[in-house]
Amino acid sequence: MINDDAQTRPLFNKIALIGVGLIGGSFALSLKKARAVEHVVGLDRHSTSLKAALQLGIIDSFTDDMASAIADADLIVIATPVAQTTKILSSIYPYLQSNTIVTDVGSTKADVVLAARTSLQEKVSQFIPAHPIAGREKNGPEAAIDDLYVGKKVVITLLAENADQSIELVAQAWRLCGAIIHHLSPKEHDQVFASVSHLPHLLAYALVDDIAAKPHADRLFQYAASGFRDFTRIAGSSPEMWRDISLANRTAILEELDSYSAKLQQLRASLEASDSVALEAIYSRAQTARVNWITAIEAAESQNKDGGD
Amino acid sequence: MINDDAQTRPLFNKIALIGVGLIGGSFALSLKKARAVEHVVGLDRHSTSLKAALQLGIIDSFTDDMASAIADADLIVIATPVAQTTKILSSIYPYLQSNTIVTDVGSTKADVVLAARTSLQEKVSQFIPAHPIAGREKNGPEAAIDDLYVGKKVVITLLAENADQSIELVAQAWRLCGAIIHHLSPKEHDQVFASVSHLPHLLAYALVDDIAAKPHADRLFQYAASGFRDFTRIAGSSPEMWRDISLANRTAILEELDSYSAKLQQLRASLEASDSVALEAIYSRAQTARVNWITAIEAAESQNKDGGD
After folding, report:
1. Structural contact between residues B171 and B156, judged by C-beta atoms closer than 8 angstroms
2. DSSP 8-state class, residue A8
3. How, if at all, do strands A127-128 and A61-62 pair?
4. CA A102, A107, A109, A110 torsion: positive or negative?
5. Chain A, nearest residue to B232 by Cα
6. Nearest to B276 among A202, A243, A264 (CB)
7. Yes or no, beta carbons of A296 and B221 under 8 Å apart
């Protein structure tokens, strides 16, 4: 499955890409740029997306026939909202050959692993769960770009059943996209992203919906500026995708939301009491942590860029 | 005070700039770029800031003597954290001549107007309260830039006592910086900005402080990505400045915080009940409102740019 003669033959003869939007489309474009794939066949609920993906060079053909799409594929990539994973894995199962690897790009992992165990049964060792930590405000094949993953993390949440060479194939594909491989357990993964990704999305959606529901919303939006723009950027994300993520990672998100709400009530109490010392202490701790974080991130990014040149 | 011969003589002979950081420094640099001021004298609590501002060409001289600084000034600009406004206005009062206009850049206005009435007494008509809606993540004179206000809004919250020519002088200064003048009452102003600026700052500070306090904070920050970066950008803002804003606009912020907390609890209930329809409804309304807002903002910005060329 892995070509030794990498100079002349691509890593993959055929990839079946299920979901040809931003994340899946950018994966395909990145691998094509790296000359790592011969043929990408697309499957998608939306025929308009398939036609757009074909025109944009994301895929080389499309079909609605799962059997033929995956028959001779080296790799199947599931890049749909996470709630569809079970159904898709079940439709893959009867046709899945032993030399084909299946992977996904879902933002939650415990539910995906459970779906894989249920749907793929004795073939579950062929499934490598992965999550690229990258995104854009825009969605769909038109938003796909060939450098979305450069310098970005991809978290692989291995199963005990996975063979080393299957893991390495998926890791190699992501490295060819410019990404850096990390490993977490599915539970660790879901807790981490509930905190630093899923909760912020909920908070941003809640703020925009709260403002939009006010009678004087037009005036409020008129004076919203760059701080508001950045704070609410993630509220421009796909509602369906985030509905699915919220439900799939419900327990961890509820826990983070309750921790956050307690912090917010503490801040409220300080404000109500006009406790300037307590207020400034919260703001100062946050500012320091934020500055330290951005400094570390920028140092790491510049190191990755240097390494990639 | 306003020169008719604008081609050869600048709008201002002398401006006294109290607070030479990002906001005041950018105002001075913008007016200098427009050749609208002959001499800027700086006053600041921090002598290092004054020296930096002098070196950066923000100010032409500095002093710690209020009397001499404002004696022959056309305009006095207060660009400090808002809690200092009362003290500064009181120190201005004894030396304030009838042909000098005073303005400020504070993010809250009801408290500033109250401070002006108390401190400036019969001279309050000379005070034009203003708030430029612009900022950066960085603070201090080093962060000041000469195009910070291009295409940005400046809200003037007039007093009944203000003379038309005083208002026009301040408006003209801001227009020379590239800004667009808006008018609101102090109360309207404070309610609007509690909603679209002050509350988001509190929410971002609370999230970063909540995460930083967790035992596994390092791992969490390690996986925080671009969504988190944008959401928390405003948590990099000055703790002192935001402590002052929080306290100055306490009542309006508490009201917005309670409205937001109710929305968040509604979202929490939907998530706990795994109510996918309710969740998607919140996310969809927010996404639609956010997309409509950004479309309108971008259209307005491109119009302003076209108009300025």
Report:
1. yes
2. T
3. unpaired
4. negative
5. A231
6. A243
7. yes
B225, A197 in Cβ contact below 8 A? yes
Q: Which CATH class is domain A189-273?
A: mainly alpha
Structure tokens at B233: 């950008």
How far apart CA A103 and CA A17 sit, in angstroms, is 10
- What lies within 8 Å, CB to CB, of B231 at 6+ separation is A200, A203, A204, A230, A231, A233, A234, B204, B207
E strands in chain B? 12-18, 37-43, 61-62, 75-78, 101-104, 127-128, 130-132, 153-156, 180-183
Per the CB < 8 A criterion, the answer to whether B175 and B181 are in contact is yes
β-sheet with A37-43: strand ranges across: A61-62, A37-43, A12-18, A75-78, A101-104, A127-128
H-helix segments, B93-225: 110-120, 164-176, 186-193, 199-212, 217-223
**Helices marked H in chain A — which ranges?**
22-33, 47-55, 66-71, 85-92, 110-120, 164-176, 186-193, 199-212, 217-223, 226-231, 239-248, 250-272, 276-308
Chain B contact set for A153 (CB, 8 A): 223, 225
Q: How far is A259 from chain B (nearest CA, A)?
A: 7
Query: Is the separation of the CB atoms in B59 and B41 below 8 Å?
Result: yes
pLDDT of B308 over the 80 cut: no
Name A103's bridge partners: A77, A128
B309 pLDDT exceeds 80? no
Per the CB < 8 Å rule, is A228 touching B133? Answer: no
The CATH class given to the B12-184 domain equals alpha beta
Distance CA(B104)–CA(A216), nearest Å, equals: 27
CA distance B97 to chain A (A): 34
Nearest to B141 by CA among B222, B46, B219, B69: B46
Contacts of B100 (CB under 8 A, 6+ apart): B70, B73, B74, B75, B76, B126
Measured CA to CA, the distance from residue A119 to residue A86 in angstroms comes to 6
Query: Inter-axis angle of helices B110-120 and B85-92, to 10 degrees?
Result: 30
| Per-residue pLDDT tens digits for B125-170 | 999 999 999 988 788 999 999 999 999 999 999 999 999 999 999 9
What are the average pLDDT values for consecutive 10-residue runs of chain A, which has 309 residues?
Answer: 58 98 97 98 97 98 97 97 95 97 97 96 98 88 97 97 98 98 97 98 98 96 94 94 95 98 98 98 98 90 54
In whole angstroms, what is the distance from residue A285 CA to residue A275 CA?
A: 16
Query: At which residue do the structure tokens 């408290």 appear?
Result: B111
d(CA A87, CA A21): 18
**3 state SS of A267:** helix
Domain ranges of chain A: 12-184, 189-273
Instruction: For residues B5 and B2, give the distance between their C-alpha atoms in angstroms, rounded to a whole number.
Output: 9
B193/A247 touch (CB, cutoff 8 Å), yes or no: no
Q: What is the DSSP letter of A36?
A: -
